[in-house]
Write a structure and sequence with these properties.
By secondary structure, the chain is mainly alpha-helical. The chain has one domain. 81% of the residues lie in helices and 0% in strands. The protein contains five helices and no strands. Helix 1 packs across helix 2, helix 1 runs parallel beside helix 5 and helix 3 runs antiparallel to helix 4. The two termini are 24 Å apart. About 3% of the residues have low confidence.
Amino acid sequence: MNVSDEELERAWQSPRNSVDIDSLAAAQSRFFADLARRRRGTRLFLAVVFGTLALISVRVVLSAWREDGAPAMEFGRDWASLLFLALPWVGLGLLARRLVRHEREHPAAGNSIRETVHALLDEVAMARARLKVVAGLHAATVMLLPLVVWQLRVTGKAGDEILWPALVGWPLVAAVILSLLWWHDRSRLRPRHHQLKALWRECERKD
């Protein structure tokens, strides 16, 4: 039985002042399945990001040493590049910590309609926070890129060929990504957050 959020809300606000148990049970099952799916998606996303960052980091570390054993990168002259590589790891750490906190704060999700809605509400809030972290990282990389380009050119590791992709191409890509993130939040996540918040308040009132 597929019960919509609007049907659930009508069940709570029945003029007979009684709750439609079948509708609530079906809605609880659907909400918990949605919560479990979202959690699996978040774990998969973090695992893919971790694997990608690990491969890139290992490759950078291996390429940072010359055949004579001398380091090709030094913090004093390459700090912008190192910071550029560290930013995604910082973001990954923030997202992983938020997921752990979410699962610890909602161990009873699925035991009742109230707990399920509350956990799903927090999961949507976590998804919105995840978009903010990703958007912040893209903005930070755009601001840091000019310093990275300058250091690479000063040390002779790159020439004029890096100017267009770094100073024009990547900012354009970042602008498109930021626009998509904003659209997803405004069209999907924010309305869903408000709807679940209203349902949770109704659950609180009924308890």
